[in-house]
Structure formats: C-alpha cells, structure tokens
Known about the structure:
The chain has about 120 residues and is mainly α.
Amino acid sequence: MNMSSWWKKGIGIVGIITLAGAVIGGAVMLLWNWLAPPVLGLETITFWQALGLFVLGRILFGGLRGFGHRHHHRRHRLHDRWRHMTPQERETFSRGLRNNCRWGRHASHRGNPDSSQTNSA
C-alpha cells in the first residue's frame, strides 16, 4: 500500500467517525429534547451535551470497545466448551440452567416447596 492510499484511507475513517458522531449526537439530542422535558420536567440539552451524554453512557454501561465484541467472545468460548462436553455433562449443564434461570417463571416451576403461593392481581 503506497503512502497516498494510506492517507486517503485514514481520512475516510476519520470522516466516517465524524459523521457517526454527528448522527449519534443529533439523535440523542433530539430524543432527549423530545422526551425528557415533558415527561421528567428536565431542561433541553445542546448537541455537545448530547454527545457527552452518549459517551458517558458508553463508558458506564457499554465500555469503550465496539458493539457486541465481548458477547461474541463469550458465546464462542461457551460453544467450544459445549462441543467438548459429554452428553451427560450437557444434560447436567442444561438442568443447572433451567433450575437457576428465573426469567418469566414462578419458583414453583423449579420445584421449590416454599413457593406454593401464586401471584394474584
């Protein structure tokens, strides 16, 4: 790769990052100014505040890496472990997940004798 194409590629990447920042900052600003003042009684924000809010949210909740890279690595590692398990180990692992995951289930589905109560509205 010659030096001139290297510079063009670098300028293109900087341009894409700048465009993405402008779009994301504008979207956050528009959504905040549309929802936060009438719903929560907060002040409107500027573009730079919206961009700062987005960056702060990524640092606090999403990290500084790209979207989804860590989850892909975990999924790949779990898939490798699953491939090397015997059928008995797979069944034990699946049973443990079913017993420990509570998403959308009552405790009685897990065989807990203390959970004879049901939710009544």
